[in-house]
Amino acid sequence: MPRTNRSTRRRRRSSGSQELTSRARRKSRKPSSGRRLSENEVEALALEVAKELGSRLGLEGIIDEDKLVDIVKDIVNSISESRSTKPSLDSIIKRILASSQVFLKAVAARLVEETESLGQSQLEFIVANAPEVAGKAAPLLYQRAIEIGAYHIVESLRHLWVMHGNPTPISCPRCGFRAVTPNLTCMVCGAVLDEREVKDSIGFKELLRDFAERADPRLVEEVLRAGFVLVNHEINPPSLRSALRFYVELYLSRDEKDILKSIVEKRLVSEKA
Ligand SMILES: [Zn+2]
User: How many angstroms does the Cα of residue 152 sit away from the middle of ligand 1?
Assistant: First the structure.
């Protein structure tokens, strides 16, 4: 059995099993003198390990046995490479259970590859065992959660999106995720928003008042001339464009301009007094 077929392996390895297998490899600096396991032996061993882990870690109903066998096979291969004798069922299980969190993350990462078939318990499993994976995949997991009515995990997903996903400063008024992009679409629920909806959702008038009261009056005048502002977690004048990492451009209505004018006029009057 040649050792060279690793790079041509059919499936992309998930990060969790990668961690386990590289640990096994680090231990095997010198080439093993013993017999390598045949493909059938690996398959048989992986099946036994998968069955045992499935029941010990409560994975029945979470992941199909053949997918679990696939994850385990990589680990069995690595462990067998690092030994001169055939590893026992017990030693493999012990090794995996010693890093069970890593293994569970690998299972979650595998589940996320097919979100369209996930059920409630699987969504809960991913959120509980692989927060980073869940945060990054929040748009897909949110969509699936809504489809099957698993609304209770949406709040966790919102939180994990902020921690590990790609959050923006602007919350979506439809799904509540911080995921509104500069072109006013939502990365999570896909909504295409209009300016008014975004303004209502962020309390735009309040932010505008705050800006008019705090900012240099010259910047307020700049905004009045330009007729629009750049919004992230606060209001910014257009001249700050190149200094901002993220902003949404929002145009001012007549009402909104009047708010700015009246506040800045009051300030100028009280400064003179
Ligand atoms: Zn949304």
Answer: 17
